[in-house]
Specification:
The protein is mostly beta strands. The chain contains one helix and 20 strands. This is DUF4905 domain-containing protein.
Length: about 270
């Protein structure tokens, strides 16, 4: 957090990349292992309908949008490999431990396989690991490409999962870093954050997501250059009952965030 005390160099900036508005709340996102594709889970609670959309992270071009399945609600996005989307199926609505798994081809847009007794734990190295309970609880390893049970890869205790996105650190109001940033925001911008904030320094830019006590909590994102210039200021959401986690993240040379729960925005770092 050293830059917050010494903003004296002209840094990089950002420019608008793309924006997509969805017909429902953006509930979850997952990115492929090569960071090229993002899949979004969008939920409409009023009609209990969940849909999924896929787009290119660098350009925003949509590969497909509003994909739905026969199960309209009890299905969720679990992971994305380079060519496959993994979904979790909830087989009994009154028993969340009863789960299955389904694999969907990103590019051919078709279901590849499913397994109706599988609680997912990890995905990586071309394998899906989870727990099955049909013949006693046991670990099961499936090949992503086929859904067939296989032996775990030799000499690897757990499939390697690479974190492709840069995510902020969250600091609650009683943390020393929170007070450091709060003092800076009060002194420089007359902003007094409350409850918690998220902070990230990356590529000569400073990203701060914070909450202001308006009528209810409002979440704001502030991006600063090394020179102290404001390169972006956005209100992400308002009338909040609580705080979020990972309210923004950096991926493929851009910053991504969700506005008003329904809009995905991307700005390139230039």
């Amino acid at each position: 957090m050293h830059k917050i005390k010494d903003l004296n160099r002209l840094g990089r900036s950002i420019e608008f990349n793309f924006s997509h508005v969805f017909d429902g709340v953006i509930w979850n996102t997952s990115v492929s292992e090569n960071s090229e594709i993002m899949v979004l889970e969008v939920r409409r609670h009023d009609v209990q309908q969940v849909s999924f959309s896929a787009l290119e992270t660098r350009t925003g071009r949509q590969l497909w949008k509003n994909l739905t399945f026969d199960e309209p609600w009890w299905i969720s996005l679990a992971a994305v490999t380079n060519h496959t989307v993994i979904f979790t199926l909830y087989l009994e609505t009154n028993n969340p431990d009863r789960k299955g798994i389904m694999a969907y081809d990103l590019f051919e847009k078709k279901i590849m396989w499913f397994h109706n007794d599988f609680a997912l734990t990890t995905v990586g190295n071309g394998q899906v690991r989870g727990m099955a309970s049909k013949h006693g609880v046991r670990e099961v390893v499936l090949a992503v490409a086929t859904g067939q049970e296989v032996k775990p890869l030799a000499d690897i205790a757990e499939p390697e999962k690479t974190e492709v996105a840069h995510r902020p650190h969250q600091y609650p109001a009683d943390h020393a870093y929170f007070h450091t940033v709060k003092t800076f925001l009060e002194t420089t911008f007359n902003l007094s954050p409350v409850v918690a904030l998220e902070y990230l320094e990356h590529d000569s830019l400073i990203f701060i997501s914070f909450y202001l006590g308006e009528k209810e909590l409002a979440n704001h994102l502030l991006v600063l250059s090394d020179g102290g210039e404001v390169v972006l200021k956005e209100k992400l959401d308002e009338a909040l009952k609580g705080i979020g986690l990972d309210t923004f993240f950096l991926l493929a040379g851009s910053v991504f965030f969700v506005k008003n729960r329904v809009e995905l925005d991307s700005y390139k770092i230039v």
